[in-house]
Amino acid sequence: MLKLRIKHIFILPFLLSALFSGCGYRSRSDLLRHIRTVTISPINNETVEYGLEEDLADAIRDEFSRTWGEGTDSIFTATIKEYEILPISLDQNGQPEQYRLFIVMSFVFEDLKRNKILRNEKNYEQFHDFYVVSDRSEPPETLPEAKEKLIDEVAADIVSSIVEEW
Fold it and tell me: N or C: which end of the chain has fewer CB within 10 A?
C-alpha cells in the first residue's frame, strides 16, 4: 500500500505537467497584442504583368483584415520580382497540358509601435500548377482562374506566417 502511494506521489507531478503543457502552438497575435492595425503599402511590381500588384495587395489586405484593421500600428511592404508561366507537361504532339505559375517576391513586416522589423523575406517563392486539358487528375483551369488561386495562396501563406507561429 505504501509503495502504491509513493508511486502516485512521483507520477502525479509528471501527469500534471503533461496535462497543463500545450502542444507547442503559439499564436503570434498573442505575442503582438499591441498591434491592432496594419497598413498595406502599394506593392512594387518589377514584372510586366499589369495589375498583379493591385490584385495581390487586395488579397493581402483581405487576409490581414481577418486579424487586424487598417491603421498605423504596423506596415507591410512588398516587391514582386518575378512572375512567370511555364509549361511543365506536354501531350504527344508537344502541346502544353499543364502549366506552372511562379512568383518570387520580397516583403517586410514592421512593427511601427516598437520600431522593429518582424519579418524580412528577401526571396519568397510560391507556385501554382494547373491543367488546361480535361481527363487529368484535376479539372482544367483558365489562366485567370490559376492566377487568382496563386494570388489567394500567396496572400494566405504570407499573412498566416506573420500572424501565427508554431
Answer: N
